[in-house]
Design brief:
By secondary structure, the chain is mostly helical. It contains four helices and no strands. The radius of gyration is 23 Å and the shape is elongated.
Length: about 90
């Protein structure tokens, strides 16, 4: 179908007119606010949900990701009463 130059031109024109408007709809503040929790949950999926705020706080205090994760794991073990096996 895309070998037909007239069809390709119609598709291109439609993409430029309709696609541009739809592209801009995804770049609003409201969409970003809705998207942020899902993106954050995906990036922090390896951390228990109850400890994600602690992790974010530690990262904000300039600890490395490894240090922050270790502190979160230590806190989780202290809270749950279980011990980590080496």
């Amino acid at each position: 179908m895309m070998q037909d130059p007239a069809y390709a031109a119609r598709c291109s024109l439609l993409g430029r007119t309709v696609g541009a408007r739809n592209f801009e709809k995804g770049r609003t503040v409201e969409v970003a606010r809705k998207r942020a929790p899902a993106v954050s949950a995906g990036k922090l999926a390896h951390i228990h949900p109850a400890y994600r705020e602690l992790y974010k706080t530690l990262r904000g205090k300039h600890f490395t990701a490894a240090e922050s994760l270790q502190m979160v794991e230590d806190q989780r073990q202290q809270t749950s009463g279980t011990h980590r096996r080496s």
